[in-house]
Amino acid sequence: MAVQVIMRALNCAIPIVILISGLIGAAIPSQAQTYNGMTLADYERLTANEASVNAKKIAHWYIEGIATATADLNGMYQALSSRRFFCPPREFVFGPAELQDLLTEELAKNGGMWRQTPMVPIEQVAVQALARRYPCR
After folding, report:
1. At what angle do helices 53-81 and 40-47 cross, to 10 degrees?
2. What is the pLDDT of residue 4?
3. Cα 106 to Cα 78: distance, rounded to the nearest angstrom
4. Of the candidates 15, 52, 63, 121, which lies 20 to 30 Å from 41 by C-alpha distance?
5. What is the pLDDT along the chain (137 residues), one digit of tens a residue?
6. What is the DSSP string of 81-120?
7. Could you tell me which residues are beta bridge partners of residue 121?
8. Residue 122 in contact with residue 65, Cβ under 8 Å?
9. Is the Cβ–Cβ distance between 120 and 114 less than 8 Å?
C-alpha cells in the first residue's frame, strides 16, 4: 500500500517528471510506457554504456525528479501518518547520484526479479530499493 501511495503521488505531483517523461517519449520510442513515465526498460536503455550523453542526461534528470519527490513524499507521509516509506540515517545526503547508485545496486542484486516485468515504473524500483536499504524499524 505504501508503494501504491507514493506511486500515485509521483504520478501526479511532479511537474519535472512529467516534463522529462515527455522528453523521454520523444527521444525513445517504446511499445508501451506506464503513464508516459520511465520504465525499467527505458532506464536501462538510457543508462547503458553505449547510450549517448544526451540519453544519460535525460535519465539523470528523471532520477533527480524521483529523488526530490521521494524524499519530499517520505516526509509528507510521516507528517500525515507518523510512518515513513524508508528511514535513512540522519546524516544521509539524498540526491540523484545516490539514487542512481542505489538503483544500480538493486538491479545487480534483484535484477532478475525486476526484469520479469520490464515495463515496471523505475519509481517503483527506486521506492522498493530505498525501503529495502533503509527499513523503518
Report:
1. 140
2. 53
3. 24
4. 15
5. 555 545 555 544 443 443 334 434 444 444 444 456 899 999 999 999 999 999 999 999 999 999 988 888 888 888 888 888 899 888 887 888 999 999 999 998 888 888 888 888 999 999 999 999 999 88
6. HS--S----TT---SHHHHHHHHHHHHHHHHHHHHTSTTS
7. 39
8. no
9. yes
Task: Report the chain's C-alpha Rg in angstroms.
Answer: 14
85, 77 in Cβ contact below 8 A? Answer: yes
| Dihedral pair phi/psi, residue 133, rounded to 5° | -75, -40
Helix (H, G, I), strand (E, B) or coil at 3: helix
User: Nearest to residue 126, comparing CAs of 82, 80, 67?
Assistant: 67
C-alpha cell at 94: 539524498
Amino acid at 8: R
Grid cell of 19 as nine digits: 516534463
User: Which of 129, 104, 102, 98 has the alpha carbon at shortest distance from 49?
Assistant: 104
C-alpha cell at 117: 516485468
